[in-house]
Amino acid sequence: MASVALRAAFFDGEYAELSAWTGETREELEAQEEYHAGERQVWLAWEDAHVIGVMKPWLRPDGRHTLYFGPCRPQAYPVLVAQVSGECFTMVDDADSAALRELTALGFHTVRTELRYSIPVTRFAASIPAGIEIVSAARTELEPLMNLDCALRQDIPGADGWQPDPKWFREETYDSPFFDPEAYLVALEAGKYIGLVRIWNGPRPQPRLGMIGVLPEYRRRGLARALIGRAFDALHARGANEVVAEADAGNNASNNLLTSLGGAVTGYDVELRRTAKTQG
Fold this sequence. Notes:
Blueprint: E1 6-10, H1 15-22, H2 26-35, E2 43-47, E3 50-59, E4 65-72, H3 76-81, E5 88-93, H4 97-105, E6 109-120, E7 133-136, H5 142-153, H6 166-172, E8 184-189, E9 192-200, E10 208-214, H7 223-238, E11 242-248, H8 252-260, E12 264-274
Parallel strand pairs: 4-5, 10-11
Antiparallel strand pairs: 1-2, 2-3, 3-4, 5-12, 6-11, 6-12, 7-8, 8-9, 9-10
């Protein structure tokens, strides 16, 4: 029996093979490539002439080298992970036992768990605290919104240490194809940016609640709920039925907020870390 050749290589325009593996059209794949043109690597795992895995490494603004895996057969993980040296992180569905088994064998270990939520889009009364204005992110300035985003991430497990990166922030906010100006809202007090709710309109089938946060001195005043209420008003008017979200299992405030909105846990993701000394 002939041996099977396993290898990893940079994506180099093999749209037909990649489309056959992921089920996405060439147009969808090209749109993803153009979204991060020239900045994000894409590795493919090959078994002879067939793609069997996808990996997109990214050095995030918080300094974490993070591996984003597309569909992968178990044998794809060793050849893909071998392309990245040093400390790195990834997220895996807790139900994906094959991926967890392979990555654990490659030196990864669990550092935290996230809960996945489905939240019904409902309309509810939530008053805005006196002196505070809520505006669309489309009406904001880049630098103060970026600085607010970084400040709020310090309290989000797995995102602390995020550094300002104007180029990345513009690409991921105002220029993003998933930017929803009616559901990405910012709270201001006397011109100071103090809180936000961010709901993305894609790429998933359901809208995704990416962040809800308020600066510490403005918490416990109902502002977070008011922000979500305004964003849900816009989604409800369009006929949206639910949004999805994630929250760290140990973040009691976030989990309490999501469950108070009727959110139900639909699954779990685990963040895995490989230290530099275990590489290779």
